[in-house]
TrEMBL record:
Organism expressing this protein natively: Archangium gephyra
Name of the protein in question: Lipoprotein
Length: 137
């Protein structure tokens, strides 16, 4: 009986220390109705790759952050992983959040931004063009 009580207490203690969390996300472009107006005539648009960037920080009592500019750090990481070449853009941005709390004394906040890199092909003079409204999200 005493051994069972100890094991139950140990399991409960480890469960409390492990913390709990919440995750969520959304498609940023679908909310902002992002539209692209190109200053060049575009003959075509092709998918290149998917990219992502992330950042995380902690907060004491889940109120006082230990670092700032979480979005800025995630965007910097996203563009570093994209290594954009001339005439390339990142579109279809997605945003995922995760918060993990440890008994309310410490929280870990993380954000992951991901998107798709597209190559825009400039149109040659007299070639058919793609309108920027056809690329609106």
């Amino acid at each position: 009986m005493n051994k069972t009580l100890r094991l139950t207490s140990l399991a409960l203690g480890l469960g409390l220390l492990a913390g709990c969390g919440v995750t969520g996300g959304f498609l940023r472009d679908s909310i902002s109705s992002q539209r692209f107006d190109f200053k060049m005539d575009v003959a075509g648009v092709s998918y290149v790759q998917s990219v992502k960037g992330s950042a995380s920080t902690g907060s004491i009592l889940c109120l006082f952050p230990l670092a700032g500019t979480l979005y800025e750090a995630a965007m910097r990481d996203l563009y570093e992983s994209a290594k954009l070449q001339p005439n390339q853009v990142v579109m279809n941005l997605r945003e995922d959040h995760a918060i993990r709390s440890f008994l309310g004394f410490y929280c870990n906040h993380s954000i992951t931004l991901s998107g798709d890199v597209f190559q825009l092909s400039p149109a040659a003079p007299g070639a058919p063009k793609v309108s920027s409204t056809s690329l609106s999200q």
